[in-house]
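Reproducibility note. Readers wishing to regenerate the assembly model reported in the main text can use the exact inputs given here. Chain order matters: entities are listed in the order in which they were concatenated for prediction.
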Amino acid sequence: MPAPMVKVQIAGPKKRLEEALDRLYRLRLLQLTPAGSEPVLELAPYPGDAERAARVEELRLRIAQLDGLLALGETSGEAGPTEASSEAELARELGELMPRVEELTARIDDLRTEAAVLPRYLAPLRLLLPLVPELAALDESALDALQLDTIVLVIGTEDDSVLVALRAALRDLVGERFELVSARVDSDAVGCVIVLRHEDADAVRELLGRERVRSLPLPAAYESLSFRGAVAAMERRLDELPAELDRTSDELRNLLAPQAPSRRATRSALAAKLDQVEAIEQLGETRRAFVIVGWTPRRELARLRDELDRTASGELVLEQLDERDAEPPVLLANWRLARPFEFLIRLFDLPRSRALDPTLLMALFLPLMVGVMVGDVGYGVVLLGLSVFVRRRFGGGSPAVRDLARVFFAGALWAVVFGFLFGEAFGDIGHRLGLRALWIYRDGPDAVEPLLVFSLVLGAVHVVLGLALGLWEAARKRSSAELLERSGSLLALVGVFALAGVAVDRLAGIALLPAAAAIALGLTLLIGPRGALGLIMGPLEFVGTLGNVLSYLRVGAVGLASAYLALVANRLGALGPIWLGLFVALFFHVLNLALASFSPMIQALRLHYVEFFSKFYEGGGQPFRPFGERAAQ
Amino acid sequence: MQTGLMALGAGIAVGLGAIGSGLAQARIGAAAMAAIAEKPELTGRAILMVAIPETLVILGFAVAAMIIVLL
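Running the prediction on these inputs yields the following structure tokens for the assembly.
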């Protein structure tokens, strides 16, 4: 069961509100609920006021500014003061800092744009220069003296006939008084230079504008240079740009980095304040008092009471409310060893607050199933090492990775245990080195039957356990329909097992009649509560339940596949020269290990989510989110 | 001859089941990925949905195992 929750109200004089909220925020024990919607209390919701709304806006703006600065000055291993600044200090600091930061970021943007744009000019110019060598050497004043003008174009086309049309249009306009040279820049663009007399230039530009041909005016800095001079200048500039960009970025970083730890602290202080101001909306009020309503885990109630007694000179009052009709938030509370498996439950769906929490059962069965499927001492030990490595290396930052690594660790432990039962270490290498199977060799000829029977028995136990839990849940909820259906499934299933036992001569023939009777009675119970629809749905559900048991065959099947792949790796390794054999065997073992670290976990998860949970699980719980939780993240 | 036919039958039982599972999982998987992209909290249910048609190949395997073990 998830941790039992109690609903409490905390009341106090309004002048103590800030103090109370700050304490609750730090304690992280209470999930707030809107006090105004409590029917028993009949409280007015805490009035919204313009001042508070403005405060929320101000805090949000400051946080956004700090986020922006922190993103810009991201460096590793920065040292500096870690105390949070007060809001007044922050405002002054930002006022001084922002103009310089804006200037530097604008400069960085300009430099990046320049680095992106210059190559677009360079490529066509480089191609066109050799075609007009005399022209390329003339600068603006020389061209002016000659009364000449130049237009550089890049036409996006794959079709060379566009150039013919352009030449014809120019000839119509200015006769023969122009020169056009062109070169293909790439497969879908042609670069052109048009040289023409000064007095024709405007007419030609107008023509190009009309035809929507875009010319490529040189950036202002290069306009007065000759083409050749412009190309050389652009190349020089492109060489300089990365260093200048680095210099400016460094300057920005150096400006921001020393204060980054302090800014981070300020940010979390502001975020805490924002959370607290926003939380006021959830509160209720009387004329002189505020009222906070929320959920807290029952086991923390005494601590919460003690802490509140020590806050605000003991002027806060905590009372327990009636929570029978309300749906409490869900906080999973399991033994330490089972806790990593809560992650897998959350991945599926949280149980409802008063329903069963299957974490402990999952912690028992899931690693066992993974262990049966991997079933190899060698792979198990490698997986043990890998899971410890992953937990140490990557687990610090991510609780999900840490939990998953622990789940894998448990699976790997069982893999070692079953490895001894199957006498496997990296396939049959263990067997060859004298490792004796305590149960069966999976790669032997007689292994299939016992392994599949074991899988089916495991499935039967698991599904029957699920049905029994479902029965218990139905009895607790006093739902007679569910009670009848689940007992029907259980009875019919037991009947089928007995029938199978008789069929394979494990049970005496006398069991035949009771088995048939159990099936008939079970089916009747399955059909009955549903009425006419039950005639179809009842048998269908029973067939589904049988399918669920058969589904556990995958435990044996995946295990056999893994054992055979290891065997193949060793057999292939024994062929050919030793170095090649080692390489091939290593390759297949690594492949098998990769499969072993992924497939059994997915299969075992599926068996839980689909086959096991469908018998009793009630999902849809809302997670417990204590006030102040965001500060912890 | 008979052993060969039995092996063929077992192969077909698993193979057709696998093809069926694959076809179903291809469609469910695509839809599940789209759903996860929109709502990452659906990951668990998506795994469940993708895993459901696997029963087909397991049943195929059960038939194949029966052919090999029982016959």
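We highlight two features of this model. The two ends of chain A are 26 Å apart (CA to CA). The longest strand of chain A covers residues 5-13.
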